[in-house]
């Protein structure tokens, strides 16, 4: 298991600690930026990940534990990626490009899913989103987390999930319902 | 609706939202929604929950990722940001006391150096010395990996065989060394390998203004040192 960087050393500007931290944080920032940008602005993924880590350096004094850093890096990268997409599509509209939906789809894949930019995630402040991600990581334990991800992210059906995780077919839905319920409670706590 | 029917509705809704429902399952869901209008609101709510869950899980997965690796050029840019935003590491009180003691000794050594410089100035110089005097130091604030530190010192020694390699564990002491130039007309080059920053700094000092340059260790240390040495030779050749 990778040794976590020391928060105090990071806050005091210790370059060796930051070198370790950057190696550890980069995949999170990159991955979060990639989720939003890959279909439309793939060339911008790296830029956004760099900007996110630069912003994280500025915010390190506000952090209470080193475990907060990865979710915060992902959260900042997510927000920056969404902002960049908004600017990109606003600029296109601003240029008076009245292209058809089909033309836009051919050029850059499907346009963003309706409501992606006003989803609960985009509505939260960076720190709030980071807190929510930390709670999801803490509360959704295996195999629930893996089952929920297989269904919602990887598109596996009930039968495939039952086989993969060696659980009864009838319990797959129960895992999904509990997982979704946990996440709903986390978001409701955030809304309050 | 009892809990079994509740779970059945949930499973049908999930399959429909994930576009995995068969025609029969889709028909069963439609029948449920028609027979129980209150379930329509729950179905809409589940659609929102699924969308939020997808986004959340994707971000959670990103925080667990271990790839891709950090590109070398990005590291340099981020280090610059750390220096700008957080500056040099602060020195602890204990370390500050040590530094004060060292300063006292530096005064004595400084006076001795001055005396030596006076002797050298009075010594007749017949020919202009060729090339630069090269002083080399390395900064290692971590100081935990003794083996690697030794090998890096050897790499520095290989590049500048006639120079002794000084090692500092404090940026403050190194700062003093870097800015403390011996008097005289000879061109002097100071080379600092900052291990944590992953860079090699070269400062030149002479009777005329000479440039200063930082080389980021991108490929490996020997290559970077060769570049630094070439820079010194270029600016000190007669």
Task: Describe this entry's structure for a reader.
The complex is a heterodimer of chains A (192) and B (238). Chain A is mainly α and 192 residues long. Chain A folds into two domains: 1-138, no CATH class; 140-192, Arc Repressor Mutant, subunit A, CATH 1.10.10. Helix content of chain A is 70%, strand content 0%. Residues 98-110 of chain A have low confidence and may be disordered. By secondary structure, chain B is of the alpha/beta class. Chain B folds into two domains: 3-64; 127-236, Rossmann fold (3-Layer(aba) Sandwich), CATH 3.40.50.800. Helix content of chain B is 58%, strand content 13%. Chain B has helices at 3-17, 23-35, 38-64, 72-86, 93-122, 146-159, 171-179, 221-236; strands spanning 133-139, 165-168, 188-194, 199-205, 212-216. Chain B has a five-stranded mixed sheet. Classes of the chains: A mainly alpha (192), B alpha/beta (238). At the A-B interface, helix 2, helix 3, helix 4, helix 7 and helix 8 of A face helix 1, helix 3 and helix 4 of B.
